[in-house]
Amino acid sequence: MEEYERFIGFLYKNISAMPEMMKEEKESILYALKAVLLLNPKGCSDETRKNAFYILLYITSLTDVLNMQERWGMYLNLVYLSFVYNDYDDYKTGVRNAYSLIESYFEELVKKSNKLSLVDNKSEFGEENSIVIVTSQFLREGHAPTRRVLDYAYTLKHDLEMSVIIINDAGLHCEKAWNHYNYIQEYNNIDSYSYKGVDFPFYQVKNEMPDEDEIILLYDRIREYKPKLVLNVGANSIVSDICRLFAKTASIPCAIDIPISKSEYLLLPRNKRESDSVVLNSILPYQRILCTKYNYIYPKKNTKNYNRDMFNVSENAFIVAVVGNRLDEELNDDYLYIINRLLNSSDRILFMVIGEVVDNERIKRIVDNYDSICFTGQIPNAGDILTLIDIYINPMRSGGGRSAFEALYHGKPVISLKYGDVWGTVGDDFTVNNYDEMFVQAIKLYEDHTYYMSISQKAKTRADELEDMKTTFSELLYNLGIKH
Q1: Rounded alpha-carbon distances, angstroms, from residue 184 to 223, 330, 452
Q2: What angle do CA 404, 259, 287 make, to 5 degrees?
Q3: The whole model's pTM is what?
Q4: CB-count exposure of residue 140 (10 Å: 0-12, 13-18, 19+)
Q5: How far apart, in whole angstroms, are the C-alpha atoms of residue 171 and residue 469?
Q6: 111-128 confidence digits (pLDDT tens)
Q7: Which SS3 state, helix, strand or coil, does residue 333 take?
Q8: Residue 291, beta-bridge partner list
């Protein structure tokens, strides 16, 4: 990695010459960035990784050396890296600006194609009692963001009697991104999707995105629906943002953060925080922040009955657990040191890791009682295994909100730092300020059964609040000025 570190250092010092260097050494530069940022990020210094991220951010704006699919692929890389690693929070505004530049290109394209300007009275234009939900990826119902789209659609149609159309604009279906996101081609052949016995008109973009012709056609298709609202779920949707030319648009993220979007309404599923100030100062003049709630629905059908014997875990064990899809990156050293302290404090305490882990050797180097760790690997219906645990301890990471909710649903206390999706999901009652406080709280829950039961009841109450999606959307539509 030393060669890549030197190369990244050279590029960073000479970044003003990047347009010319990219014309001559494009593939070498992009591979070096990929090596440092994605393939082996732990093999180089923090400074090198941050410099590489800045270079990637700069490259994303180069219109002369990258075509639009390449620029979009680089942008998706930025989004992925920002989500998985905590090191790039200082570049949030830059990432948003990169999206804005790309969206503006397609917005001008649509305007020229349709000879359109902004519709002044959007409430009059929305003649039909319909809402179009736009997402950038639609997979199976076990995929948390897909389930979120479906739960939103079901609530709006079944509970609030709105007509709902679901569109997958396939914004993540881009071969130029380093991570190739899943895409289900068979959805190209359906025009309706059924969920919980309710049918929804459905359309999925068939081409790799962003495709100029497809974006224009999709814009026209949505315009013909004359919706009251175009609701983007997940952010980063060029199509839904352009729809603000004729309709009310709102964007809600699949994370607990201000969505990256040029929609009129940015839905923030939590209260504003001091740390939001930089992003709040960068939003566009016409945009409004609406604080709302983040909801989850626990599936009541097709649940799986797990027991401790399946994992060779004693009924007497006190299980602290974590769930994740990127645990090699998320189980940072500071977190593992706290786990080590917990395991050393009592022979009864066991650490259950729910999800795939590749780098077990790193964990062995930190955790003395490695035999007191249960690795379940990837398992179906992972939320159901949380009936077996005692407490859920969350590392410092962006994601994890869904599994934290599932722990609450089963009455399991959650301990989280004040960071990321889990903080927004569980609320302040289940957060601590640092890892040392996390250890103290875990030990208290272990030693004091009365205290444990009181926190367990709080967990169930919080889960009930999070499942009340009908009230959340009823209030949201009211605040958006949409009658239902």
Answers
A1: 26, 28, 44
A2: 140
A3: 0.90
A4: exposed
A5: 26
A6: 988 765 555 445 445 556
A7: helix
A8: 268
